[in-house]
Structures are given as structure tokens and as C-alpha cells.
């Protein structure tokens, strides 16, 4: 079970150690164990496409089928990424290795007013997974979906989380690994305080930025500039005390800590971290 940490708890309940580390993410992309449910946060769809392309291509190499539920605009970017990796989407569809559905259209098939219907979700989405399974019995399906993000961007966050939970229920009776994408800005305090805990609660693997090591350097520099080295060191000690090692990337844990415990400084530190992260990426 994935448990949530509420800042201020004296005995924090967090996901298992290693849950967010780089090795765990790489293993998910390459091996895609059944029932694993990962999420990539992004600000540029090309970042998301690199994860989706790597995830799908690793499966195609092993003859594993894929189900992609994407918006039409994003599918064009994903298809280009697959082609760059040497896979022709049209040929994959003809072979039955790739099944596609439009995220907006599929949502309409199982939404009941402002909530997803569990019965209709089982029928519609479960039916797609079952069809892929029938074509490739004994194989783990690699699924990508962004219906949750469509809901989130509409302002229907509760419906998005309810849909994530339906995916998790579906995984108890089907053999698939699922990757999701969310358009979220990790350098916004409200995202750190409110959105991320809910998103992380429903996933087994989370990547908040494409380059975690650069995020760590950016956060460290921003902290030192705004608070000075002594107070920055104190915050690292506080985070280490409350967040078990390995349960979150240290930089991400610090951002969450700042957004809930150092509110007067959070906006400035996160904006500086954003700037340094962008500069580090540009210099690479």
C-alpha cells in the first residue's frame, strides 16, 4: 500500500524506500512489471515523449503489446519519437502490437457527470486491455494514458484521482504496466503542497523532473542564495529527520518541505530553483 506523508507528522508515513530513485524509474521503463503504475510530470511535451517512447520501445523489442490513450496533439509527438527510435507506428498497429485510443473521446464513454463510472470504465478500458491480452496471451501490456491529465487540466482533480484509483483496481485483474503524464509545474508551491501528494499517492513510481541530478544542484544553489549556507544546512537536516532516506529524491523532499514549513521564502526559493535548473540544462 502507498501511504501519504502529511508535513508536520511526528511519525511520517511514506512510500517504500527506493520508490522514487533513478534505478527504480529506469527499471520501470525497461522492465515494466505488471501492476506497476508510474507517472511523469512535464512542462514540455517532448520530455514526456522521451519517457513514453523509451517505455513503449523497450516493450516492442520484447514483443510486448502497447495500449496508448493520448490526445491527438500529443500522439503526433509520441509517434515522431517512436519513429526516431526506429519504430513505425502504422506498422505496429497493423501487426496488432499497438492499440490506440483518443483520450478525450474515451473519457466521454465512461464519465458519469463529473465522476468516472467504475462499471463503464471496466467495460470500456478493461475491454481494450482484454483485447490486447487476447492477441498476445501471457504478455504484460505496456499502457500509456493521459485521460487523468485531461481531467486535471479541466479543473476536475477529484475525478482525475478517482480515475487513477480505477486504473489501480483494474490492475488487480489484468496484466499491464501503466505510465501516466501530468502537466504540472514542480516549482509552484501549491503544486508541491496540494497536487503532488495526491498524484504520488496513486502511483508506484514518480518522476517530477526529467533530470533529477540537475534539480538537486538547482535547489541547493537557490537555498544557499536565499537563506544562506547555515540555514540551508539546517533545512537539509530537518528534511533528513522527517523524510526517510530514499523515499523521495532529496531535492523533491526539500521543495515539499519549503512549501509547507517555510512559506514566506518558498516562492522566491522555488523561482530561483526554476531559473538555475533551466540554466544548468541549457549549459549541458
Major sheet: 6 strands, parallel
- SS element count, helices: 12
Strand content: 5-15%
Separation, N- and C-terminal Cα atoms: 38 Å
Commentary on this structure:
The protein has 284 residues and is of the alpha/beta class. Helix content is 60%, strand content 13%. It has a 6-stranded parallel beta sheet with strand order 3-2-6-7-1-8, with helices on both faces. Helix 10 crosses helix 11. It starts with 21 loop residues before the first helix and ends with a helix. The N terminus is likely disordered.
Descriptors for this entry?
2 domains; Rossmann fold; six-stranded parallel beta sheet; 284 residues; disordered N terminus; alpha/beta; two-stranded antiparallel sheet
Task: Summarize it.
The chain has 284 residues and is of the alpha/beta class. It has helices at 22-31, 45-61, 72-84, 89-95, 103-110, 118-135, 147-153, 157-170, 189-201, 212-242, 250-261, 263-283, and strands at residues 37-42, 66-70, 98-102, 111-112, 115-116, 141-145, 176-183, 205-207. The two termini are 38 Å apart.
Write the layout of secondary structure elements.
Elements: H1 22-31, E1 37-42, H2 45-61, E2 66-70, H3 72-84, H4 89-95, E3 98-102, H5 103-110, E4 111-112, E5 115-116, H6 118-135, E6 141-145, H7 147-153, H8 157-170, E7 176-183, H9 189-201, E8 205-207, H10 212-242, H11 250-261, H12 263-283
Parallel strand pairs: 1-7, 1-8, 2-3, 2-6, 6-7
Antiparallel strand pairs: 4-5
Amino acid at each position: 500500500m502507498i501511504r501519504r506523508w502529511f508535513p508536520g507528522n511526528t511519525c511520517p508515513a511514506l512510500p517504500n524506500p527506493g520508490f522514487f530513485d533513478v534505478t527504480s524509474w529506469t527499471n520501470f521503463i525497461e522492465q515494466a512489471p505488471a501492476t506497476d503504475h508510474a507517472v511523469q510530470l512535464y512542462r514540455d511535451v517532448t520530455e514526456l515523449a522521451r519517457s513514453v517512447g523509451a517505455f513503449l520501445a523497450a516493450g516492442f523489442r520484447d514483443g510486448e503489446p502497447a495500449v496508448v490513450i493520448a490526445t491527438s496533439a500529443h500522439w503526433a509527438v509520441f509517434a515522431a519519437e517512436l519513429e526516431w527510435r526506429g519504430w513505425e507506428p502504422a506498422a505496429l498497429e497493423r501487426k496488432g502490437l499497438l492499440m490506440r485510443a483518443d483520450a478525450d473521446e474515451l473519457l466521454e464513454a465512461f464519465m458519469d457527470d463529473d465522476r468516472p463510472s467504475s462499471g463503464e470504465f471496466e467495460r470500456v478500458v478493461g475491454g481494450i486491455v482484454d483485447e490486447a491480452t487476447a492477441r498476445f496471451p501471457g504478455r504484460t501490456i505496456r499502457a500509456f494514458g493521459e485521460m487523468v491529465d485531461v481531467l486535471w487540466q479541466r479543473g476536475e482533480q477529484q475525478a482525475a484521482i478517482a480515475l487513477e484509483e480505477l486504473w489501480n483496481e483494474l490492475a488487480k485483474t489484468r496484466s499491464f504496466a501503466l505510465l501516466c503524464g501530468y502537466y504540472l509545474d514542480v516549482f509552484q508551491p501549491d503544486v508541491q503542497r496540494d497536487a503532488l501528494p495526491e498524484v504520488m499517492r496513486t502511483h508506484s513510481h514518480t518522476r517530477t523532473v526529467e533530470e533529477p541530478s540537475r534539480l538537486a544542484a538547482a535547489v541547493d544553489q537557490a537555498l544557499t542564495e536565499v537563506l544562506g549556507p547555515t540555514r540551508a544546512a539546517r533545512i537539509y537536516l530537518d528534511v533528513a529527520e522527517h523524510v526517510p532516506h530514499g523515499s523521495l529524491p532529496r531535492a523533491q523532499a526539500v521543495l515539499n518541505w519549503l512549501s509547507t514549513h517555510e512559506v514566506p521564502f518558498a516562492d522566491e526559493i522555488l523561482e530561483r530553483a526554476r531559473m538555475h535548473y533551466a540554466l544548468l540544462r541549457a549549459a549541458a
